[in-house]
Design a protein that fits this description.
The protein is built from 14 helices and 11 strands. The chain has 545 residues and is α+β, with helices and mostly antiparallel strands. The chain binds adenosine-5'-diphosphate.
């Protein structure tokens, strides 16, 4: 959770910068602190030694003075000797006691075998004295001691036997000196113990601790101040300009190319980045304007071309409508006259003429139907064919087609079966166009089925569609030709089709009309076995529901 929070914050540049900066400062300050701590300790210890040395040397000077003035102390003006018990040893003890009372320091004479058993050295002093005795070149020795949980600094300055000492401690060993003690029999320069100084270290540690505390406070303050300053500078010089830049870039991305970056408060590299951005925005604007101009130009051209096309389409369909009207009017007259002449020939019993006139009538009717197909195709291509969609009963349409084509089927001796019953739901279609599609398919079926064959119309429900199926047992279509039969003016040559005249427009028209009903049309076939044409029409859901 906390890690997630930190991670989220670290996504922001100033925060990440501050995070790493803080870590760096803390590491540097920790190294610094441990170094300073070490230095402080060394320095304080040095001061302690210096102090002990001075005190020791003062004490030694005092002893030296007393030793040198023994005669002045013990002889009166008449030259009579009286030992006053103010020898160096006694005076040292007395002065040492007073000093210890007045200060927290303890100072005394430490000797291996003191004359006074009270002056017997403790274990630390014995140890230090032994070291001094072993190495006479040492001018001082020190150590740290722990007495009842308190730390003490133990320090000893070595003493040698000097000339004045010999009176009491030199000579023959065992001889009695003026103070009444047996002489030790020392020679000049012999090791004579040392001045032992004991200093409690409490003050030393207290001072060290307060130095560290002060330093730590300074470090924390420095870190906080540096971080605040770094944060403000970071925001001012880097984060804010970048934020501004990114805001402008975003609005540029959304298409606002008018953003002015010259007012951006930035310096150095970021300022020059902003300038580069400005130049880029200017260029983009230029390009965009050019592009817009070009698009407008092209759109205008396109609109004009479209208008021209619409106009030419209109002209084309107008022309076709006119032409077909012009063609149909005389054709209708020809057919009508032919019928009159046919009636007359039949009345007169002129069989040959009647047959010729019948052929003429059929040809005329075919011509009318061809013209109608052509006109429809032209209308579809001009986008002017409109279907009048409504709820339509497919069985009614199929029945009407059956009625129309039964005479042809009979004539060709082909069985026509209409299996579409009233159980098929209503469809959404233009009944006239649906009839036209079915007429084309069933007409083709009869046309391409030899005598004795069958053409069957059925329908089945498939989801939201009705599939209308026209199946024949005719000549069939090869796989290769099957791909092309829906193409305009495509007639597939085969022995049996050569005498079936047509325009090659029937299936193309049927396909276009099916598409206008949002349906699909396709065919399956096998040579000499027959063909099956299928198309879909959407059902009227309201009727079904
Ligand atoms: P057409 O006016 O020539 O009949 P269509 O577009 O209706 O034009 O048909 C194109 C061609 O497809 C026909 O010439 C014929 O070769 C083939 N064709 C169409 N229906 C059938 C069918 N039921 N059986 C065999 N061939 C067919």
């Amino acid at each position: 959770m906390i890690i997630k929070l930190i991670k989220r914050h670290l996504d922001k540049l100033p925060h990440r910068f501050m995070f790493y900066l803080t870590i760096a400062i803390i590491i540097i300050m920790t190294i610094n602190l441990s170094f300073i701590l070490h230095l402080q300790r060394e320095q304080a210890l040095e001061e302690l030694k210096e102090k002990a040395y001075i005190i020791g040397k003062q004490f030694e000077s005092m002893r030296e003075y007393i030793a040198k003035n023994q005669d002045a102390i013990n002889y009166d003006s008449e030259g009579n000797f009286e030992f006053k018990h103010l020898n160096p040893s006694r005076v040292s003890k007395g002065v040492g006691d007073i000093f210890s009372n007045w200060t927290e320091y303890e100072i005394k004479l430490a000797r291996e075998n003191p004359r006074n058993p009270e002056n017997k050295p403790d274990s630390i002093e014995t140890d230090l004295l032994n070291q001094l005795k072993a190495d006479r070149s040492l001018t001082e020795i020190w150590t740290k001691d722990d007495i009842e949980g308190e730390k003490y600094f133990r320090y000893i300055i070595p003493l040698s036997i000097e000339q004045p000492c010999l009176d009491c401690h030199g000579g023959r060993a065992g001889e009695i000196d003026i103070a009444g003690y047996e002489k030790e029999g020392y020679n000049l320069g012999d090791f004579a113990g040392g001045i032992s100084i004991t200093v409690p270290m409490e003050t030393f540690y207290k001072n060290l601790l307060s130095t560290i505390q002060n330093y730590l406070m300074l470090v924390v303050l420095t870190i906080i101040l540096s971080l605040i300053i770094a944060y403000i500078l970071m925001r001012y010089f880097v984060a804010d300009p970048i934020k501004h830049l990114s805001k402008i870039t975003k609005s540029m991305g959304k298409g606002d190319l008018d953003s002015d970056l010259s007012k951006l408060k930035a310096h150095g590299e970021i300022k020059s980045l902003a300038n580069d951005f400005d130049i880029m925005a200017e260029k983009l604007k230029e390009m965009y304007n050019k592009l817009e101009h070009k698009v407008n130009e092209r759109t205008e051209q396109l609109v004009k071309a479209n208008e021209k096309l619409t106009r030419s389409n209109q002209l084309q369909s107008e022309f076709l409508a006119n032409i077909s009207h012009e063609l149909r009017t005389p054709l209708t007259s020809i057919i009508a006259f032919t019928e009159i002449m046919l009636d007359q020939a039949e009345e007169e019993g002129n069989k040959q003429q009647a047959e010729n006139l019948k052929d003429m009538q059929e040809c005329g009717e075919k011509l009318v139907s061809m013209i109608n197909d052509l006109l429809d195709m032209a209308k579809i291509e001009a986008g002017q064919m409109q279907v009048n969609l409504m709820s339509t009963d497919l069985s009614d349409v199929a029945l009407s087609v059956e009625k129309t084509l039964t005479p042809l089927a009979k004539y060709k001796r082909v069985k026509l079966v209409n299996d579409i019953g009233y159980e098929i739901p209503l469809v959404i279609a233009d009944p006239d166009r649906l009839r036209q599609i079915l007429l084309n398919l069933v007409g083709n079926g009869i046309k391409f089925t030899p005598q004795g064959g069958t053409v069957k119309i059925t329908a089945e429900l498939h989801g939201d569609d009705v599939i209308v199926i026209v199946e024949d047992s005719g000549v069939g279509i090869s796989e290769e030709n099957l791909k092309m039969i829906f193409n305009k003016f495509k007639q597939v040559s085969s022995s049996s089709t050569s005498n079936n005249h047509g325009t090659g427009l029937g299936l193309a028209l049927a396909q276009n009309l099916v598409h206008l009903h949002r349906g699909e049309i396709w065919a399956e076939s096998e040579i000499n076995k027959g063909s099956t044409f299928k198309f879909t029409v959407p059902i009227d859901k309201e009727d079904r529901g």
